Description:
The longest helix is centred in the C-terminal third of the chain and has 19 residues, at 226-244. This protein has helices at residues 53-60, 99-109, 116-123, 138-150, 168-183, 195-201, 219-222, 226-244, and strands spanning 5-6, 13-24, 27-38, 42-46, 68-73, 84-87, 156-160, 187-192, 204-209, 212-218. By secondary structure, it is an alpha/beta fold. The protein contains eight helices and ten strands. A six-stranded mixed β-sheet has the order 6-7-8-4-9-10, sandwiched between helices. It has a four-stranded mixed β-sheet with strand order 1-5-2-3, covered by helices on one side. Strand 7, helix 5 and strand 8 form a beta-alpha-beta unit. Helix 2 runs parallel beside helix 4 (138-150) and helix 3 packs across helix 4 (138-150). It has two domains: 1-77 and 155-163 and 178-245, Rossmann fold; 84-153.
Amino acid sequence: xxxxxxxxxxxxxxxxxxxxxxxxxxxxxxxxxxxxxxxxxxxxxxxxxxxxxxxxxxxxxxxxxxxxxxxxxxxxxxxxxxxxxxxxxxxxxxxxxxxxxxxxxxxxxxxxxxxxxxxxxxxxxxxxxxxxxxxxxxxxxxxxxxxxxxxxxxxxxxxxxxxxxxxxxxxxxxxxxxxxxxxxxxxxxxxxxxxxxxxxxxxxxxxxxxxxxxxxxxxxxxxxxxxxxxxxxxxxxxxxxxxxx
Length: 245
């Protein structure tokens, strides 16, 4: 893989991942994963811890290089890194900075400092913008990380375990924000092992197990609590197939 391929014409697929493979030593972290995220869609990558979700995200973002496969990103605009917003599983902030200073820095990197206060309001931590991050709770840091991902007004939003550390009110706020972003035609990719929350907000779910995509489930198959049942059915079937081989 030569790296991320950016295409700048408008298509129905903002992100297309084809046959990704990545080994660490002799072990596959990602093995032949393929999926796509369309404009105005929320797609979830679900799997157990160590399934390969975060590795796949890092390849998509260009943070690590795949051994083979391809990633195409099309935001429909002139080329800008600010068109991609990313929330990592763990956000490493300077405890000495305030939330406002941190978000202002993230916005300045993309030249969009005018949206800082708007995003603070949207993520529900405007009241803490002048407090040092060392005083923030885990949930507040998570909201700040989400604000950093959104402040560039990205067309493609990639979130790794976004519900982690959020209380029920924070999770409801997250779902509302993602629904708003979807309504704007933006594309959202979520990696999570929280099956219930993911099923509620996603249009489609890709089930990853041991580095492979073993199923793609459309909305009608994951609604009304069906995802958890289907997920374990797929995992157990895959384990049984591996043992048989």
